[in-house]
Write a structure and sequence with these properties.
Helices cover 46% and strands 15% of the residues. By secondary structure, it is of the alpha+beta class. It has a domain of 116 residues: NADH Oxidase, CATH 3.40.109.10. Bound molecules: flavin mononucleotide.
């Protein structure tokens, strides 16, 4: 795939077919993340690839957090929990991305940017391999129980998000972007 085609056609994919994601394709996409630009070469990205058991556990956390924060009757809460869990279980593969914390705020800002570059690399690489991906930062992804489940020490790493991978069932239309002339200005 041509580079500009990949950049322009890449979409956030939320609905996937049931077709499993081959491990080698997942690893190739993640491997592209390692090649992101990175000031000081701290290589701050870490990936936690979830298996079926941990995916079920994180789906349960998603349901728990939703129910803890919602106000509704018991029947509605039970349905909300079931829907939240089903949503996570519908993702063919889940990978958590974290950023190492070095204790220096300036470097940590750069490192977070580098991890975002890695995620973009991963999503574009996945797209080129025929896979869709969504970067999720939704309600439960940074809760203490999620850190515990993933075995991530919050003093050493921050969770940057969960990546959902699969073969696209629906490719949404692109959301409009402001024209370049609106977001760029040239100084004399
Ligand atoms: C840091 C970050 C967090 C995101 N978190 C979510 C999320 O929690 N849920 C979601 O549906 N999309 C999430 N997205 C994806 C955006 O919604 C998506 O990129 C945007 O709607 C534009 O669509 P496109 O990626 O198809 O061009 C996130 C994107 C970024 C960069």
């Amino acid at each position: 795939m041509n580079l500009f085609d990949a950049i322009h056609t890449r979409r956030t994919i939320k609905e996937f077919t049931a077709q499993p994601v081959p491990d080698d394709l997942l690893h190739r996409a993640l491997d592209a993340g390692r090649w992101a630009q990175n000031h000081r070469m701290s290589e701050p990205w870490r990936f936690v690839i979830l298996g079926p058991q941990s995916q079920r556990a994180i789906a349960a956390i998603s349901g728990d957090v939703l129910v803890q924060t919602a106000r509704a009757d018991a029947e509605t809460l039970a349905k909300m929990r079931a829907d939240a869990e089903a949503k996570i279980l519908s993702k063919p593969r889940v990978v958590a991305v974290t950023c190492c914390l070095c204790g220096d705020k300036e470097v940590e800002t750069e490192d977070y940017a580098a991890v975002a570059c890695a995620v973009q690399n991963i999503q574009l690489a996945a797209w080129g391999l025929g896979l869709g991906m969504q970067w999720s930062t939704s309600h439960f992804t940074t809760r203490p129980m999620t850190y515990e489940l993933l075995g991530v020490d919050p003093a050493r790493e921050m969770i940057v998000g969960l990546l959902y991978f699969g073969y696209p069932a629906v490719v949404p239309d692109p959301k409009p972007r402001k024209p370049l002339a609106e977001v760029a200005r040239t100084l004399p």
